[in-house]
Amino acid sequence: MAYTISASGLRKRYGDVAAVDGVSFDVEAGEFFGILGPNGAGKTTVLEIVEGLRRADGGEVSVLGLPPWPRNPRLLPRIGVQLQSSAFFERLTAREQLQTFGSLYGVPAARADAMLEMVGLTDKAGVQVEKLSGGQAQRLSIACALVHDPELVFLDEPTAALDPQARRNLWDVLAGISTEGRTIVLTTHHMDEAESLCDRVAIMDAGRILQLGAPAALVRGLDAPARVSVASGTLPVEDARALPAADEVADDGVSLVVSTRDPGAVVAALAAKDALAGVRIGGATLEDVFLELTGREYRA
């Protein structure tokens, strides 16, 4: 199979720090691929190597069948890059920004309005970028990365520092871009974002890939118990501990939570006791996988 991206044994050191330590992965055409990890895991360095912005100390990488380093002018019209921190030309409007970016690729100025519509910024076309909100500026940044209609798009933590509403809004934009058949590579430390958007993810820490696969497959592989919760006071804690298949029970004064590997048996037993008030059933998530692999200690 001819992969859109093929990376093998990538390495990058800064003094005594191995920022990237033998990273290998492939990305298929049309795939939404996520690179996850805590701060300092090496996500951005890997992305910069693949984009051709940084030279690897070792290993090989191919992008659309071509080497990205030294900076490859044949790749530039075929890739779009949204960096972790974007900078715009001062005092230009959103439309003018897109027209300026597009002109670098010979794109007609009229395409700017189509891109503004795609990212939901038509009503901000005449607004200077300094007056856009954080979420609006991020959407404009993505539009700039897509203005020349690239085959492959790199997004480096596109929702960092956005509020929940702005993040969800941007997710809708990214999901729409993905349905157009583009290949997208995303770095993020938001597990819910990756679980919602990505076909496959690579979880990194200390410069290495710890696990790689579809989010649902990684969650199933964790083999974690389900959590059945009801309103606190619905059932005494001692009675909850006596329920069939109950492994652990906790009551924080708001919810009574039963951890179990057989949630059906627990729910049936609760129903028999007429104790289903506010019942909710939750399984493991990608965040549980992430924490299992990378630990829970504070990272500066």
Cα gyration radius (Å): 23 Å
Strand order of the biggest β-sheet: 5-6-7-3-8-9
Q: Can you tell me the overall shape?
A: globular
**CATH architecture designation of the largest domain:** 3-Layer(aba) Sandwich
How large is the count of helical segments?
10
What's the CATH class label of the largest domain?
Alpha Beta
- Overall structural class, as computed from helix and strand content, comes to alpha/beta
- Total domains: 2
Q: Give the strand tally.
A: 13
Identify the CATH homologous superfamily of the largest domain. Answer: P-loop containing nucleotide triphosphate hydrolases
Describe the overall structure.
This is ABC transporter ATP-binding protein. Residues 5-231 form the ABC transporter domain. GO terms for molecular function: ATP binding. The protein is of the alpha/beta class and 300 residues long. The protein folds into two domains: 5-219, P-loop containing nucleotide triphosphate hydrolases (Rossmann fold); 225-283, Alpha-Beta Plaits (2-Layer Sandwich). It is 31% helix and 27% strand. The chain contains ten helices and 13 strands. The protein has helices spanning 43-51, 94-103, 111-118, 134-146, 164-178, 191-197, 215-222, 237-241, 263-272, 286-294; strands at 5-14, 17-27, 32-36, 58-63, 79-82, 152-156, 183-188, 200-205, 208-213, 226-231, 246-251, 255-260, 280-282. The strands form three sheets. Strands 5-6-7-3-8-9 form a six-stranded mixed sheet, with helices on both faces. A four-stranded antiparallel sheet has the order 11-12-10-13. A three-stranded antiparallel sheet has the order 2-1-4, covered by helices on one side. A hairpin with a 2-residue loop joins strand 1 (5-14) and strand 2. The longest helix is centred in the middle third of the chain and has 15 residues, at 164-178. The chain is globular and about 70 Å long. The protein starts with a strand and ends in a 6-residue tail after the last helix. The model has no long low-confidence stretch (mean pLDDT 92).
